[in-house]
Amino acid sequence: MKIGIANDHRGYKKKQYLTQFLEKLGYTVINYGTDSEESVDFPDYAKKLGIAVREKEVDLGIAICGTGIGMSIALNKMHDITCAKVSSVAEAILSKAHNDANVLAISEEMDDETTKQVVIKFIETPFSNVKKYVVRNNKIKVIDND
């Protein structure tokens, strides 16, 4: 499985940590983020990741910035992207099982152990395909087309 990771300057260290962690688990990690702590504009990197997810260059995306909120807002502006800003394992599971999210947004301030658990649950949890969630997700897609 290919995982795309995008980050701004504040997410640089967390990206480095996650890349090593995921590669040790056998995932292919594609970098769409900045490679330094020099200040950059996160929307530029969110867009690169969103395009990669939409074009199926990667299977899922992970976006990292100071809070995860900015990346999430930018990514959710993009057609066919469903980005969940997640702070817990439960949210990671539900973002996939109920919302079929294809991008995870996290804060660089999340502790490393929680980060690992959140990312693994996001990657491993399948969409439940329960009718009520399919209906709700389709309603979201219609909003996207308005």
Task: Tell me what the structure shows.
By secondary structure, this protein is an alpha/beta fold. The chain has one domain (2-145): Ribose 5-phosphate Isomerase B, Chain: A. The protein contains six helices and five strands. The chain has helices at residues 12-24, 42-54, 69-75, 89-97, 112-124, 131-145, and strands at residues 2-7, 28-31, 60-65, 83-85, 103-107. The chain has a five-stranded parallel β-sheet with strand order 2-1-3-5-4, sandwiched between helices. Helix 4 (89-97) runs parallel beside helix 5 (112-124). The model has no long low-confidence stretch (mean pLDDT 96).
Count the E strands. 5
Number of spatially distinct domains: 1
The CATH H-level superfamily is Sugar-phosphate isomerase, RpiB/LacA/LacB
Distance between the termini: 33 Å
Output the strand order for the largest sheet.
2-1-3-5-4
Q: Using the coordinates above, name the CATH class.
A: Alpha Beta
Give the tags.
146 residues, alpha/beta, Ribose 5-phosphate Isomerase B, Chain: A, 5-stranded parallel sheet, 48% helix
Topology, element by element:
Layout: E1 2-7, H1 12-24, E2 28-31, H2 42-54, E3 60-65, H3 69-75, E4 83-85, H4 89-97, E5 103-107, H5 112-124, H6 131-145
Parallel strand pairs: 1-2, 1-3, 3-5, 4-5
Helix pairs in contact: 2-3, 4-5
Give a brief description:
The protein is 48% helix and 16% strand.
